[in-house]
Amino acid sequence: MNFLQLLALIPLSLFGSQTAADSLPVATAPESLHGIYFTSQTVALPSGEALADEFKKLGGNMIVFDIQDSNGKLAYMSNSPISIEIDNRKNQIPDLAATIKKYHDKGFYMTARFVLFKNGFLARNKPEWTLKRKGANSTFVSRDGPIWLDSGNQDLINYLTEIGQEIAIAGVDEIQFDYVRFPEGGKGGYIGYSYTGENEMTRDERLTQTVADLAYQLHYLGVKVSVDVFGIVVWDNVSWKVIGQNIAELGKYVDAIYPMPYPSHFGFGWGGHANPANEPYFFVQETTKKFVEQTVGTGVQIRPWLQGFAMRVTNYGGWYVKEQVKALNDIGMDGWTIWNAANNYGVSFAGLK
User: Fold this and answer.
1) What is the distance between the alpha carbons of residues 247 and 171, in angstroms, rounded to a whole number?
2) Number of domains observed in the structure of the chain
3) Burial, 332: exposed, middle or buried (Cβ in 10 Å; 0-12, 13-18, 19+)?
4) CA distance 43 to 93
5) CATH at residue 98
6) Is the model's pTM score more than 0.70?
7) Distance between CA 343 and CA 43 in Å, rounded?
8) How do residues 118-177 score in pLDDT, each as one tens digit?
């Protein structure tokens, strides 16, 4: 039994609970990281290895892969008692540790994407973990359905920590939290739900405290922790309050923040730009600059997601990714990850060449 396996047997309660004032020192990434996203299926297949080999020739050195997405179960056979009880496990990655080692041997930094608070499977099987309708004890139903979990529910947080420990012990370098937020809504956001601690904490305080606690526990296992966040939250003073993503505060507790400054996700006419999707250089650069400004002094790394898909783009091609990389390089930024949901990177790779 190695040290990490032994440490994982120690009850979490012995580590205590982190407050906003006593986080562990923020770590730094070992190098500039250039990544692509893999589904849990892709990372376990020979075709994924071939894709990674091709990417490495272009300077790639990181794979971000799904350990659990927003649609369902964990992608490996978790040994957690709760995972077994509710069958929250799939054999998409038959041997997680061996898969991670295989990519390590190729020289890749391995980041596991772990969706936290948007999960229909857990909502159905653990309704006590969900956001509740205001003034009732029934599950809150958003426009996307009954899929949102309560980020203040301690039983849920204990379970997420346990899963994070399993992932860390398997050898992953970094655990990336996605859907670390409340449901988005119109002006003012949803007002129809309750969450644990709402009488003492605002939404952003609730999420920041939860992320701080999770990061505190996982840092003990030597794994880095990061979060995915909307790009738009740094452009106004409303969006981050609605979904609870306070960048300046989150940056104090995690090792990296992955903004999603996809040009296609800014509405037509945003800031006087007819179609933001056609301006990758501007929107990636300006969004990233705002993230850097809002996290000054935290030590956190800003590592943007780049748009590797054609949504709303008039003449999408290899130039599109090239422009986004240039936008970062021109402001002294060298870390990024390309997102394509289907893992089709032919066009993106052409741009990197």
Assistant:
1) 28
2) 1
3) exposed
4) 8
5) 3.20.20.80
6) yes
7) 10
8) 999 999 999 999 999 988 999 999 888 899 999 999 999 999 999 999 999 999 999 999
